[in-house]
Amino acid sequence: MAGKGDCSMTHSDKNLYDLRLYIFGKTGKSETAIKTLRYIRHDLLQDNCHLEIIDLLEQPERGEDDQILATPTLIRRYPTPVRRIIGDLSELGKVLVSLELKP
Amino acid sequence: MTADRKAERLQNRSVQKVPTGIKGLDEITGGGLPKNRPTLICGGPGCGKTLLSMEYIVNGINRFGENGAYISFDESVKDLTENVASLGFDIDTMVAGCSLSISEIVINAENIIEAGEYDLGGLFSRIGHAIDSVTAKRVAIDGIEAIFSLFSNQSIIRLELKRLFRWLKEKEVTAIITCERGEGKTLISRHGIEEYASDCVILLDQRVIDQTAIRRLHILKYRGSLHGTNEYPFLVTGKGISILPITSMQLDYDVSGERIPTGIKGLDQMLSGKGYFYGSSILVSGTAGTGKSSLAAHFAASICARGKPCLYFAFEESANQIIRNMQSIGLDLSAYVDQGLLKFHAMRPTQYGVEMHLLTIHDVIDSFRPAAVVIDPVSNLTSIAVIADIKSMFARLLDTLKNSQITTLSTDLTTGGRYQESTEIGLSSIMDTWIVLKNREKNDHRERIIEIIKSRGMAHTASINRFEITAAGFVISKEKVK
After folding, report:
1. CB-based contacts of B163-169 (< 8 A; 24+ apart in sequence)
2. Is the model's pLDDT at B168 over the cut of 70?
3. Residues of B whose CB is below 8 A from A91
4. What is d(CA B413, CA B337) in angstroms, rounded to the nearest whole number?
5. Which of B108, B115, B129 sits opposite A91 (nearest CB)?
6. Distance between CA atoms of B424 and B117, rounded to whole angstroms?
7. Can you tell me the ipTM of this complex?
8. pLDDT digits 0-9 by tens, B11-51
9. Chain A residues in contact with B112 (beta carbon < 8 A)
């Protein structure tokens, strides 16, 4: 087992996952997406993940930034390349492949 | 239900309308677009969809005090701003003044993974934000079906667009939504969006006929409202979109009893001694070289000699050519040109489509405000008219001129082989006065003759007179033709 050093490496900003989820109101689809993301962040990324949830119902001006049309939309901002996943993330296998958490 | 009661019921429920301010469109829709409802505009590329929607929005701001939101799927804000700047629309100032919100929706289908159920909440939120940010009453969504290329689940998009149309109604905005026209005859829009647009659907189309591009507008449906059902030609000019007809047929203009001398003594005599009626339309037909232009020039000079402005549309010759030619028969038109009383407008008939000519005529008349107009020859205009509609459009032009109490003299070149008392497009029936000029071979020379086929409202001569074109102009001989 590598020591604490390795561990702190994964915690450094450089390796932190940066995810952004856009939803439009608290709908069934957004709840499902949030639940899946929480699982990914906690169980698969050991919380090495910055997750921002933007509700366009409350912050409509934010939609321009990432050219959001469909909701929910998940954007993997880091690591690059930027990935864009739309839908309630119920197809977990697809989500993990696109986030490169699963080959 | 009787027709009357149905009409009454329609009237009571008749939709409120929002004027577009687009020349001609408000006339054929009976006042504009249905208020607080979405209107779908379908057309192929380059038909003028973007311009039409932009003009609608800008007119709302500049002329009707209604703010607007423009959402484009097709063009960048920068391109849009530049493209409409030539029409005098200052987009930047309107945006800065918070009367216009303009946003572009970038369609980039790369790297999108679909993993589960989704809707177009993001699109709704952005349109909603655009509307709310300026409290827009008018909305244009340009090129919406680009969205179909972005998502694999077309049935979701369909449902969402249907919801969008409903939602726009709930937002109480009057919206224009544009989309590409589909292929074939059955499809209106490429993705069948018209299914959701139950209130108003307008088709735009562009055809090339005889190497001239002709754009047309057709109101396919307008629920709860009477509307013109024809295909209306329209133009994209430096001032925006203009749709013909500019005015509809009306037959209730004032009739003048005042007379205008023809500029030719003998012809005045033939027309019960006083010449044409003020505000009437006159047709002069004849084969080549019979003196039609000379007769027209006499008329123009007669108007100008009375201090009134005359506009001369020349389709065959340049202004200088006409002035020189008329000098040879003793008419000095250049003096009137110098005084600003006579204005020539020369156009080559093949240069543009006939609609362009008619529209130009309207525009020039609008700015010059003449007492009389000469169209020499009108047959050149009609020779490029390929569709029956256009012929009736000329009738509408004459109608407009009559309404404005403008006396119009048109010359009509008839071809030798044809019966000379028929005109190219059956124009004679809408003319008040019809003069025919002929050349007849007689022994060793040609004899010029003039006759008046009709002249409404006056006791005109029925005799056929001989005439000469001399260095002192038209001279009609008193002696009757035997």
Report:
1. B164/B120, B164/B123, B164/B124, B164/B127, B165/B38, B165/B196, B165/B197, B167/B124, B168/B37, B168/B38, B168/B139, B169/B36, B169/B37, B169/B38
2. yes
3. 115-116
4. 26
5. B115
6. 65
7. 0.85
8. 545 789 999 998 788 888 888 999 999 999 999 888 889 99
9. 84-86
Confidence of residue A1 (pLDDT cuts 50, 70, 90): very low
Beta bridge partners of B433: B282, B455
Which residue does chain A place closest to B132, by CA atoms? A60
Which residues from A are below 8 Å from B128, CB to CB?
A: 60
- Report which residue type is found at B354: V
**How does residue B164 score in pLDDT terms, banded at 50, 70 and 90?**
very high
- Contacts with A25 from chain B: Cβ below 8 Å: 121
Q: Which residues of A58-90 are buried (b: 16+ CB within 10 A; e: fewer)?
A: eebebbeebebbbbbbbbbeeeeeebbbbbbbe
* DSSP H/E element including B470: strand B465-470
| A94 → closest Cβ in B115, B117, B126 | B115
Nearest Cα of chain A lies from the Cα of B92 at a distance, in angstroms, of 19
Q: What is the dihedral of CA B141, B146, B147, B152, to 10 degrees?
A: 170
- Choose the closest CB to B116 out of A82, A83, A90: A90
Contact A60 B126 (CB under 8 A): yes
With CB atoms and an 8 Å threshold, state whether B111 touches A82: yes
Average predicted confidence (pLDDT) for chain A: 83
Treating both helix axes as pointing N-terminal to C-terminal, what angle do B77-85 and B49-63 enclose, rounded to 10 degrees?
Answer: 70
Strand partners, A54: A22
Q: What is the mean pLDDT of residues A73-90?
A: 90
The stretch B207-215 carries a mean pLDDT of 69
Whether pLDDT at B189 is above 80:
no
DSSP state of B298: H
Choose from B72, B77, B113 for mutation: most chain A CBs within 10 A. Answer: B113
Nearest to B283 by CA among B428, B459, B395, B88: B428
Q: What's the pTM?
A: 0.72
